[in-house]
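Standup notes
- DV: blocked on the single-chain target, sequence here:
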Amino acid sequence: MEYVYAALLLHEAGQEINEENMKKVLEAAGVTPDEARIKVLVEALKEVDIEEAVKTAAVPVAAAPAAAATTEAAPAEEKKEEEKEEKKEEEATAGLASLFG
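- DV (later): unblocked, structure below
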């Protein structure tokens, strides 16, 4: 989990998420970096919009019913687009989860 935290810290600080920066952050936190884990995470994050992932993960549970009500009122085409976007987000999340499973 500390590897993900290091990546989030770098992102929030506006620094590039690369192997060297990840290693520095982990060492500064007192963690012995695992080069292989760093490399895998950096590669996986190249395909992820971190801002969007954080927003998606930070959605409170209470907001879910409101979103569902909006979806029900949407035309069929908009529903299909939303489903495609949700599927892409789920696939991206699953890819990240597999790194730490």
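- Follow-up: The CA atoms of residues 21 and 35 lie 12 Å apart.
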